[in-house]
Amino acid sequence: MVAIRTITQMTAAARLRGYLADPSKTLMCPGVYDGLSARMALQEGFDCLYMTGSGTSMSRLGMADLGLTTLNDMRDNAAMISSLDRRAVMVGRTVAQYMQAGVAALHLEDQVQNKRCGHLRNKELVSEEIYLSRIRAAVNMREKLLGDIVIIARTDALQSLGFEACIERLQKAVSVGADVVFLEGVETKEQAAELCLRLHPTPVLYNAVSGGVSPNISVAEARELGFKIVIFPSVSTRQVVEGLSQVLRDLKENGALPKTSTTPKNVFELCGLQEVIDFDTAAGGSMYTNGV
């Protein structure tokens, strides 16, 4: 099948590249893991979403982020999220299927296939040779498919190999075609600043994980340090765990739901109710003539 891209239809990857080229812009990307969290982030006006692998694993499988999700799990979730809005949706994994899913970027890392969350200890790495071959393969597939997906080179080597080895891996990744670099588990602000300085002018991504090993910095601080993208992968899952746990405890203890101003219709409106009504009306339907 040959996909023909019209001039007026900008791809998510093209939008992302435009953001990266804007010297005044630092991307702020909340982590989302399903349709509802993505809709909520879009409603708040975020330009770019980050599909969190840990959130995908927990929401689809009910399992911790220990490399148990398959390509199909990730690709299907990415396709669903990216279909909600054609802004930049950043994800991690396989190039061809993600391009078909309409996502803007993916990150490729140097952990073994049976990976784990970047903010856990004792991560196992592949050799530098294998890592760079992954980047080359992604670049080659992008070129083969005439795509513009943004390739982010991630390294998890800081704990085991040290900072200088990470810089070297990322510099080599850029030399074989990576567009953005990502050092997981940055330990200090000084280290963060040095990273951006050494990799300049390549855009650098900062992973802001609350409670993780990296400093808790704001988007403004990240911009001053030299970062171009800041992701907040746990923002949705953390709030869901805290909020839903409290509601479930209250229900268990009291046998009744707490009062809320949110109605079922409010939630449905957030998730595209009006779009469905408009589509039905435009097609000549009358299913929603009397309202919902």
From TrEMBL:
One of its GO terms (molecular function) is methylisocitrate lyase activity. This is Carboxyvinyl-carboxyphosphonate phosphorylmutase. SUPFAM superfamilies: Phosphoenolpyruvate/pyruvate domain (SSF51621). It catalyses: (2S,3R)-3-hydroxybutane-1,2,3-tricarboxylate = pyruvate + succinate. It comes from the Eukaryota. It comes from Cladophialophora immunda. Signal peptide: none annotated. PROSITE patterns: ISOCITRATE_LYASE (PS00161).
